[in-house]
Every structure is written in structure tokens, then in C-alpha cells.
Amino acid sequence: MNQGGFLNITSEIGKLKAVLLHRPGRELERLTPQYLHELLFDDIPWLKQMKKEHDLFAEAMKSRGTTVYYYEELLEEVLVNREIRQSFIGDIVYNTNIANLELERLIEEFLLSKTPKEVVEIAIAGLHKNDLPEVERELHLVDYIKERHPFYINPLPNLYFTRDPGTVIANGLSINKMKTPARDRETMFLKYIYKHHPTFKGSNTPLWYDYEESHSLEGGDILVLSDKVVAIGCSERTSARGIEVISQRILENTNIEKVLAIEIPFTRAYMHLDTVFTMVDRDKFTIYPGVESHVRAYELTRGKSTPKVKPMDTLEGALKSALKLPAVKLIQSGGGDEITAAREQWNDSTNTLAIAPGVVVTYNRNEASNETLRREGVEVIEIEGSELVRGRGGPRCMSMPLVREDL
Ligand SMILES: NC(=[NH2+])NCCC[C@H](N)C(=O)O
């Protein structure tokens, strides 16, 4: 069924051929202690160092044969077309909640006077109130009341976690519905790329989910385990209904036969399934031992209009049965020590990115977890992440695989 289009993901571990990243930019320099929580950060990273770390992350993939695409480049290419740029600017302004038509028009005019590159930059880094040239205008009530908020267009500091707004499943794309307002606008970028970029558009690239739908679904929860099985975390960010809706669509339109819905505790430390559980080889997974006993798995198969559900006894059993494997290995992160495991999980030890079967990229700081993976025969490529980690995401969160070789 996977013929035609550019996108192809039939596993978590097939050789990674193309990936979408976002190099952290000025949006990170707009974080202040006051808005950290709202913007889903716990700390303020140092941008210069962050960029270096991110470039080395990209390099680690490139040197192994992965083509790296960047959000800002693709968007800029799309926005060279004036009509598309106008529509994009209209959408951005519409999504800002400025609630003042005159001001909206001024911002629109301001953006229309910018080059495609500048528009992309503002769309991601936001528009500070001081950056809009002063014009005489009558102040409305909303101007007074909202005055303390520093931005007309909010910055998107989480965009470097490209995993979350979009997910390729089989030959199609899911443009996800983000749970929080802080990340809502990220998904719109993907829609423009999908609709207008020559590499991505194509009548044969199905859309499995759209950000305009009402139930939240984030990419950190979606793991394409094989050409027949997808796992989706039910979490703080991804709703049960969102899982049902996308599952029925992929069960009807692809070779996928089963979706494993995996329920994890709803808490900030494990906001997505991939913060506690990732696939590292054909029959190997890494898991944070602190959640193992709280995880519940359900097997979904195609139903009439919504999937049939079968609760499973254990995660291990569910994986074995769905993947038709005689055994699976759940490798516990943290090297068997409870305290180390919890500390390293906070720093994304279980958020591994497989770039080939049994080959993963991880942060070097998670020494015990990396050592455990190696002992289990996994090749571990370590990257520096002291600044990147401050946004609470690791190599898997920072990447959106577009094309993998089939296994
Ligand atoms: N796939 C992931 N685990 N992504 C992590 C995203 C972290 C980001 N600060 C957020 O809270 O949304």
C-alpha cells in the first residue's frame, strides 16, 4: 500500500533516511522565569551552547546517511509564494487572540512587509510588543488589560521537539492536535509544508489526523512498532478519544492490524509515552522501571466505526502477542538503581532515537542507562545535551522521522 509519496515509516528502528528537525533559535531567548511553566519549560537554556549541541545531534544522523530537513528552510521555501505567505500571515494573526481588529491589521501589514525568511523567524520566535513600529491609534480596553503580556505573537520554544506536532505513520501524515496552547501553533506550520512543499505534497499522502480536530494527540505518544502494529500512549497529552479516532483510520486504510493503547500515569515528568518507553531493536525496548507496574495496555483492532478494545494483562504480553515474537526484552533504564533511574529519566534516558535496528542516539549524561543498553547489545551513539535537555526532551523528542527503510 505504501507506494507513491515521499513519506514512509513502517517501524521505529528501520534505517533512518530522512528526518525533520528544528534548530533552536531566538524563541528560546524569550523565555523568562515568569512564563516558564506556561511555556512547558523548567529552566532557561543557553542558546549558543544549545545550537552547538543541536548541530552535533544533526551531524550524528547525517554521518550515518540521514538527510536532515529543517522546519525554517521548508517553511521559507513555501512562503516565497506571495499568496501562500498572505494566507499564512492571516492564519498566524488569527491565532494570536489579540482581540483587536485594528491592531491585527497593523500586525498583518507589518508581516506582509517582511521577507519570507523574516516571516518564518517571527512566526517561530514570536513578536514582542516593542518590535512593532509605533503608530498612533486609539487604545481599547483589551490593550490596557493585556498590557502586561509582552508578546503580540507568542514564541514557540518547544518547536525543537519536532516529534510532537507531526507523525508519519506508514505512507501518511498525522498533523497532531496539541494539548496545550503553548504548542498549538506549531502544527499549523506542518499543514503549510504538507499542502505546499514540493517534496511533501502529493495526492497520495493521506492525512490521518488534523490539528483542527477536537481531541488531543501528540507525537511523543505515537510509536510505529512495525508495519502491522502502532503503539499510542494515553497520557497527560494524548486523549483516549484521539487514539480511537486515528486508530480506526489507520486500521481501515493501511496494513496496520493492531494499535496498542498504552496508558501511563498522567504527570509532567512523563508527559509522553516516549519519555518512559522506546523501541531500540526488533525485540528490545527500554523502559523506566518506575512506571512499569502502573502501565496498562489495550489492544485495538478495526471496528465498525470505532476500534474494538481488548484489555491486555501486561505490557510485555501485549507486545509479544501484537508483534508475534516469542519473547521481548524490556531493558530497565538507570542500571537497576531506583534513584539513578528516576534522575536519569528526568533527563530523558529512555527517550532514545533508533537510527537503525539496535543503534540508538542518547544523551551522554545518562551514564547508567547507556551502559545498560550497551550490556544488552545495543550500539549507543552519545550526544552532548546539557542545554537541550532543559526543555525536557531527548533525541527522540527532537526528531520527526520522515522516511525509514522498511525492515
Ligand atoms: N516527545 C516528547 N517527549 N517531547 C517532549 C516535549 C517537551 C516539551 N517541553 C513539552 O512539554 O511539550
Automatic annotation (TrEMBL):
UniProt keyword annotations, A-Z: Arginine metabolism, Cytoplasm, Hydrolase
Enzyme Commission number, as recorded: 3.5.3.6
Reactions catalysed, as given in the entry: L-arginine + H2O = L-citrulline + NH4(+)
InterPro entries hit by this protein: Arg_deiminase (IPR003876)
Gene Ontology MF terms: arginine deiminase activity
Superkingdom of the organism of origin: Bacteria
Transmembrane segments: none
One Pfam family here: ADI
Subcellular location: Cytoplasm
Pathway as given in its UniProt record: Amino-acid degradation; L-arginine degradation via ADI pathway; carbamoyl phosphate from L-arginine: step 1/2
Principal localisation: cytoplasm
Active site (catalytic residues): 397
Family per similarity comment: Belongs to the arginine deiminase family.
The protein's name in its UniProt record: Arginine deiminase
Organism for this UniProt entry: Alkaliphilus hydrothermalis
Taxonomy of the source species: Bacteria, Bacillati, Bacillota, Clostridia, Peptostreptococcales
